[in-house]
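User: Teach me something about this protein's shape.
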Amino acid sequence: MPSNGSKEADDSQTWELAERCLLPIAFSHAIAVILATILNTFGISQTSSFVLFLLLLVISVGSTLFYHNLKVTAAGKAILITGCDSRVGYALVKQLDDLGFTVFAGFNNKAENEDIMQKLKDHASGRLHVLQLDITSERDIHSTFLYVNENLPDGAPGLWALVHAAAWVTLGECEWVPPSVLKRSIDINFIGLARLTQVFLPLVRRSKGRIVLISSLLARIPSPVRGIYCALKAAVEAWGSCLRLEMRRWGVDVVIVETGEYVSGNAWLKDNTALLEQARDMWTQLDPQTRKEYGQELFQAEMLALEKYTQGPEADLTAVTRTLMDAVVKTFPMRRYTPVTRSERIQALCNHYLPKPIYDILYTN
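Assistant: First, the predicted structure itself:
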């Protein structure tokens, strides 16, 4: 995680282009070798495979870059975004509204976010719709579906995109988390997300649109104190990958945006004090014997670990919102975006390729 006083450059776009171009480059080399062999064998031409490779490389990479940067028109397209009371959801609503999309902004609790909603309305166009949408409420989900279906732009066959920005971060030792907190975290981060998608898929399918899921690099990196969050993000990624395969026949894209650990530990949290109070409540709910085995000293150390992910300057969301915008507006979005820092990307690679004992020595305190 980058320190509070420094900011690492965002090189995620470079990685995205490299991922896009890798397969065309490999195919260009293979086809060049095959063509050169055929031409030389039959005496048709003595052109070298390297010259053919350069020619095919220019054609394939140029076509890939054109394909990579194509964007859809915003007119007549509607987007539903959940969790607009978070910084990332709020920023995304503003940017998509500015581009000309019809945006349905879902707030978990309208009564608690009246100031934010009014500010959003004051700076947005008349196309913006602000909705009450608690994704754990079946009533909210169905009332939102009816409202969206009745207020689609003229001529729109369905919903262009469903963006899941709602999240609820649960931090603490796996043994500490009480059943009520565990259930709420599962309901918001996975069950509510899956249920909302089920209800809205017919609308998305009609427009051959896309589902955008916000995950985290922690889905692939084990992290003490954040075990529940790691598990739920891993579940979202696995579920999203299966959904993508199932939706291919309908022309529906499922895009996973995998954020960095600092962003997912800070940007979705509105009240850091409440988070620390929640952790203390977890501690007091443990039975006395378990508290004795862990000890007050370890608990204090864990509190400091929580503050590391919740205090300090606000996380820079530029890279995250940029990738979310790409996931919505690109004609051919990537299956996965990873707007993370270089050190986080290296950590993920080490976790994937290094033996686990070596990784634990390098990254686990």
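Now, about its shape. The chain has a mean pLDDT of 86. The beta strands are 78-81, 102-107, 129-132, 161-164, 210-216, 253-259, 336-337. If you'd like, I can walk through any region in more detail.
User: That's plenty for now, thanks!
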